[in-house]
């Protein structure tokens, strides 16, 4: 039998109402100052900043790199395994936005190569302020047939690769002493299970990316490094269009009735990269046309 009088759990506390003196003192110490117009949009600018974008040779990574360049970046480093696409990407970014753009061929799983490249980036472009971790792969395999090496490869690129790059980048940001902003491209698949396609490794990897981001945000806050995630739903990319049957199914299951344009992630990327989001860390922004609300 439960003895209710023995209940030692602490009760919620209702504080006494503040006195007139408390209110006057609080008003005097409030950080607001006199009212004046502020330029909120200026806080979204990235002038003079340097960004590293993995998987930026194409797709969502390229689109977010472009968004950051349009907000005034001084330099952008594209890290990818695809050389031709990477070189084409930096030419486009340089020609369109006048930004100093460099391509580095690297596999995000290779921690030694990634560490060397971070040294080259800070020597060639300057202190690193922003990281977008977008490199990733997916495959569709029934779980009971999933070969172990294929399963491991997805986890290794999507999750371990995100850590390898974030760690190398954080070491620079910490030694520079200026903080920074890291954006992890997770997925709505880190919160829900996609259907009808089988993608257990991908879903697990993206759930891992989200929790990795949260762990790093707590550890690195002391260094002024903010970590957040963007979790896209189904986006209208060439690869997704090639799955004709699934494409229509995804469209029907999305409340907004369409897949997302890759450019529709850039607003969030600019916000997270910039001072406009200075109090945001450890957050996951789901941009999915409402898919995960159902
Ligand atoms: N497209 C979508 O609908 C969607 C939805 C949710 C999340 N995402 C995520 O967004 C990110 C980008 O997806 P995308 O659709 O643009 O894919 P994509 O295949 O077009 O681009 C991924 C890029 O990453 C690069 N890459 C792959 N493995 C790499 C490695 N080991 N080292 C370095 N670079 C590597 C590829 O060469 C490619 O350029 C991925 O992390 C993906 O999981 C995509």
Give me some keywords for this one:
294 residues; alpha/beta; Rossmann fold; seven-stranded parallel sheet; 7 strands; binds nicotinamide-adenine-dinucleotide
Describe it for me?
With 294 residues, the chain is of the alpha/beta class. The chain has a single domain (44-287), classed as 3-Layer(aba) Sandwich (Rossmann fold), CATH 3.40.50. It is 42% helix and 13% strand. It has nine helices and seven strands. Strands 3-2-1-4-5-6-7 form a seven-stranded parallel beta sheet, with helices on both faces. Helix 2 packs across helix 9 and helix 4 (111-124) runs parallel beside helix 5. The model has no long low-confidence stretch (mean pLDDT 95).
Order of helices and strands: HEHEHEHEHEHEHHHE
CATH class: Alpha Beta
Sketch the major β-sheet: 7 strands, parallel
- Taken together, the total number of domains comes to 1
Please compute the radius of gyration using only Cα atoms. Answer: 22 Å
Considering DSSP H and I runs of 4 or more, what fraction of the residues is helical?
A: 40-55%
Q: Strand order, biggest sheet?
A: 3-2-1-4-5-6-7
Structural class by SSE content: alpha/beta
Say which molecules are bound, naming each kind only once. Answer: nicotinamide-adenine-dinucleotide
Gross morphology: globular
Beta fraction: 5-15%
How large is the count of helical segments? 9
Strand runs, count: 7
Integer average pLDDT: 95
CATH architecture grouping:
3-Layer(aba) Sandwich
CATH fourth-tier homologous superfamily: NAD(P)-binding Rossmann-like Domain
Low-confidence stretches: none
> The CATH topology is what?
Rossmann fold
How far is it from the N-terminal to the C-terminal residue, by CA? 42 Å
